[in-house]
Each structure stands twice: as structure tokens, then as C-alpha cells.
Amino acid sequence: MANVIDYLPELEGDEAAYISKVMESMDEKTADRFTRVYRARRKDPQTVLLTALVGFFGVAGIHRFIVGQLGMGLLYLFTAGLCFIGTIVDVINYKNLAFEYNREVARDAVSLIQ
Amino acid sequence: MRNIIKHLHKNYFEVAAFSIGLILLAFMDPNTTTGPGLCLLENLGFQYCPGDGLGHSISFFFRGEFSNALQSNILGPFAVFIIGGRIIYIVYKNSLNHNKIL
């Protein structure tokens, strides 16, 4: 049984709760490998927030590219973040955008290390 | 109650924001409404906005006037498809992730 605080102390909130559920049944060696893969691939919510904020000063949509949403990224880029409305929505919603991406990363990491 | 609001904000905030936007644009009449429409930047008094005509374009698109829609903003119809796809994707994902760990 691996504790998420020992392995990934930088996680917060929903992400920490989710990853602790994922790591519950892992032994030490698996948890170690999972931690390495997950930490290398996950996106920090703060990165998403900062790149979303860049949208107010010119180039919008970088955060959508970062979390792998190409279509939304292009749309934001060419319409200045849907006339700033989309940018404001994403600045409020940045944690969920990052968590949505990281959940997929965790799923991939688990299937990779098995 | 608090938990319900938290849950809704966590899962459906983006869906709600984009759906409300699309519904408002669907009910807006692009022929009679001139000027800023829903654009935040133009309502603040700026002359130019890079998303110029997007709202009108989407509004024309919902009325089936495709040539007008493309003339207002070439990205309008694509925006509807991309945003619609995103809404459907989030709702689908949330239904899959319900009470599930991996």
C-alpha cells in the first residue's frame, strides 16, 4: 500500500485524491515506477493557468494545446480566445482542464508499468 | 448542497458556459443586431477584435444562412462544430467516469 504524500507530495485537491485511489493497491516497486512516469508526463495546473492568462495579452489558446486539445487551441488562437470569453472561462476552470489531462496520463501510466 | 455545487462546477462548468453562449447566439437575430453583440472587447469600447463577426457568424449558421455565416467570419461554422464536439465529449467522459477509479 503506497501513500500518495510520500511519492507525489506536489499534488493537490482532486488530483491527489484520485491518484491516492490509483496508488492504493500498488506495492513499493510499482508505486516507484508509476511515480516516475506520472511525474514526467503530467501537466502542472499552474502552467495551464499562466498560459491561459497569456491569452489576455495577445496569443490565446496555448493552454489548450498544452492539454492536447488541438481543435480548441486553433479556434482560440484565431478568435482571441472566443473574444476573451473562452479565456475567462478557462482561467476559472484551469484546474479541471489540467485534471482532465492528468487523469488520462495516470491511466496511461498504469497500463504502461503493468 | 455544497457538495452538489462543487460537483457541478467541477464537471460541467465548461459545458454550461459554452452552451449558454451558443443558446444566446442562437436566439440573437443577426440581421437586426448590429454593433458589438456579445463581444466583450467591443463592449469595452475597443474598435477592433480578432474574433470579429464570430457571434454573428454562429447566429447566421443556426438560421441556415451559410453564405452570410461564412462572410461574417470564416471560422463561425467550424467554431460551432468544435465547441459542440467539446460539449458532447465532456458529457460523454463524465458519464464514463462516474463512480469509477480507472
Written description of the protein model:
The complex is a heterodimer of chains A (114) and B (102). With 114 residues, chain A is an all-alpha fold. Chain A is elongated and about 50 Å long. Chain A is built from nine helices and no strands. The relative contact order of chain A is 0.16. Chain B is mainly α and 102 residues long. Chain B is 67% helix and 0% strand. In chain B, helix 1 (2-27) packs across helix 3 (54-62), helix 3 runs antiparallel to helix 4 and helix 3 (54-62) crosses helix 5. The model of chain B has no long low-confidence stretch (mean pLDDT 76). The interface between A and B is medium-sized, with 25 and 28 residues.
What are the low-pLDDT stretches of chain B, counting only 5+ consecutive residues below 50? none
Instruction: Please count the helical segments of chain A.
Output: 9
Structural class of chain A: mainly alpha
Task: Categorize the overall geometry of chain B.
Answer: elongated
* Beta-strand content of chain B: under 5%
Using only C-alpha atoms, the radius of gyration of chain B works out to 17 Å
**What sequence of helices (H) and strands (E) makes up the elements of chain A?**
HHHHHHHHH
Task: Identify the quaternary structure here.
Answer: heterodimer
- The number of E-state strands of chain B comes to 0
What's the end-to-end separation of chain A, in Å?
A: 16 Å
Question: What are the segments of chain A in which pLDDT stays under 50 over at least 5 consecutive residues?
Answer: none
Number of helices of chain B: 5
Which short descriptors sum up this protein?
heterodimer; A: 114 residues; mainly alpha; 9 helices; 0% strand; elongated; B: 102 residues; 5 helices; 67% helix
List the helices and strands and how they pair.
The complex is a heterodimer of chains A (114) and B (102).
Chain A: H1 4-7, H2 13-23, H3 28-41, H4 45-54, H5 62-66, H6 70-78, H7 80-83, H8 85-92, H9 94-113
Helix pairs in contact in A: 2-9, 3-9, 4-9
Chain B: H1 2-27, H2 40-43, H3 54-62, H4 66-72, H5 76-97
Helix pairs in contact in B: 1-3, 1-5, 3-4, 3-5
